[in-house]
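testing teh design pipeline on a random one, pls ignore if ur not involved
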């Protein structure tokens, strides 16, 4: 198999301009990157370097101004409407810094959301929800609770369960530990390691070297461009720096 065959995410000269009135800000100035199936990649860089912009492009949450994005062999930049939503729903799980859980829904209902458009029968849904919650380090006793009845670390485990419930090929996380203490951050990284070991591709945007160094590869972003890679140092990963 060639490099492109193993690739699950390909970006070709992706540019993103934000226009606010007369002012144009470049979020991305031409990004080329390849992530292979089953890789665990960190994206690091200073504030404003384009990390969230890049992740939103890969996650098909926003469209590039120019360039091409190929997700699992599908030229995603050409998709619209229902087709786009379908690829996003099936291929991608997204985890955010602020969890983005829906406050009026229970934990169960939050995790269930990505399964609804797929028409998965109720009994199977329940099985998948419990499996995802366990995978994310959560507890079934949370299922009937509202997100606000849980700690930040617990809410993030629920959000990760929601991202995993469809078993997407790619898990994307934007500063997933940004609102958490180190102990809760470690749990998040443990989950990422576990699902990556099970074959899922994981891409994590982070400021935190203790999280970034847990990956197999670190891409460095500056001013809307990938300027190179840093060799991860397992001794700096929170799994090794924070003892239980
Ligand atoms: N919706 C928007 N409208 C206008 N400009 C934007 C928008 N989103 C991002 N930008 C600009 O694009 C650039 C990249 O922003 P981005 O949010 O991707 O950075 P980041 O690396 O994620 O930063 P942080 O670490 O602070 O989250 C910045 O200059 C930012 O001001
Ligand atoms: Mg950001």
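output:
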């Amino acid at each position: 198999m060639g490099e492109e065959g193993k690739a699950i995410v390909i970006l070709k000269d992706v540019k993103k301009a934000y226009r606010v009135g007369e002012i144009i800000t470049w979020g991305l100035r031409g990004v080329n990157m390849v992530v292979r199936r089953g890789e665990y990649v960190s994206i690091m860089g200073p504030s404003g370097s384009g990390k969230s912009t890049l992740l939103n492009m890969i996650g098909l949450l926003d469209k590039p101004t120019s360039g091409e994005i190929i997700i699992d062999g599908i030229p995603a930049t050409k998709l619209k409407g229902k087709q786009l939503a379908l690829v996003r729903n099936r291929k991608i799980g997204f985890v955010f810094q602020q969890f983005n859980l829906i406050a009026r829904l229970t934990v169960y209902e939050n995790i269930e959301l990505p399964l609804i458009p797929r028409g998965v029968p109720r009994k199977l849904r329940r099985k998948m929800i419990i499996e995802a919650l366990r995978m994310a380090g959560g507890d079934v006793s949370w299922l009937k609770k509202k997100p606000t009845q849980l700690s930040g670390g617990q809410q993030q485990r629920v959000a990760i369960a929601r991202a995993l419930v469809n078993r997407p090929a790619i898990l994307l996380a934007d500063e997933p530990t940004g609102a958490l203490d180190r102990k809760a951050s470690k749990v998040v990284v443990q989950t990422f390691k576990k699902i990556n070991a099970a074959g899922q591709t994981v891409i994590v945007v982070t400021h935190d070297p203790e999280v970034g160094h847990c990956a197999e590869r670190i891409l460095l972003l500056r001013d809307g461009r990938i300027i190179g890679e840093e060799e991860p140092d397992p001794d700096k990963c929170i799994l090794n720096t924070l003892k239980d």
